[in-house]
């Protein structure tokens, strides 16, 4: 499965796409941990007090994981697209 990273998260990781191979029957949280294992510098940028920071958007197949009933416990499959967006501003 693959993470898409945007803006400074991609810069921190050194790449815009990161393939991960979490445990069988993975959840979003498992996939996130697999991302942090391969790119540890992202952990401090994405998490605040052990949770996904309020200002970071985590999407599964284009939908916010925060809006899902299971949240980080949502099951993911090999073809799912995961994405992390930092706050964006501009004008």
Profile the largest sheet. Answer: 5 strands, mixed
User: What structural class do the secondary elements suggest?
Assistant: alpha+beta
Number of strands: 7
Reading the helices and strands in chain order gives EHEHHEEEEE
Shape: globular
Taking pLDDT < 50 over at least 5 consecutive residues as the criterion, the unreliable ranges are none
Mean pLDDT: 92
Task: Compute the CA-based radius of gyration.
Answer: 12 Å
Tell me what you see in this structure.
This protein is an alpha+beta fold and 91 residues long. It is built from 3 helices and 7 strands, in the order E-H-E-H-H-E-E-E-E-E. The chain has helices at residues 8-13, 28-38, 41-46, and strands spanning 2-5, 17-19, 47-48, 51-52, 57-60, 63-64, 81-85. The strands form 2 sheets. It has a 5-stranded mixed beta sheet with strand order 2-1-7-5-6. Strand 5 and strand 6 (63-64) form a beta hairpin. The radius of gyration is 12 Å and the shape is globular. The mean pLDDT is 92.
In short:
The chain has three helices and seven strands, in the order E-H-E-H-H-E-E-E-E-E. With 91 residues, it is of the alpha+beta class. It starts with a strand and ends in a 6-residue tail after the last strand.
């Amino acid at each position: 499965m693959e993470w898409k990273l945007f803006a400074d998260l991609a810069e921190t990781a050194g790449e815009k796409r990161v393939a991960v191979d979490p445990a069988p029957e993975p959840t979003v949280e498992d996939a996130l941990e697999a991302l942090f294992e391969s790119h540890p510098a992202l952990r401090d940028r994405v998490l605040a007090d052990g949770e996904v920071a309020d200002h970071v958007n985590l999407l599964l197949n284009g939908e916010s994981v925060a809006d899902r009933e299971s949240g980080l416990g949502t099951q993911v499959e090999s073809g799912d697209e995961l994405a992390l967006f930092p706050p964006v501003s501009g004008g």
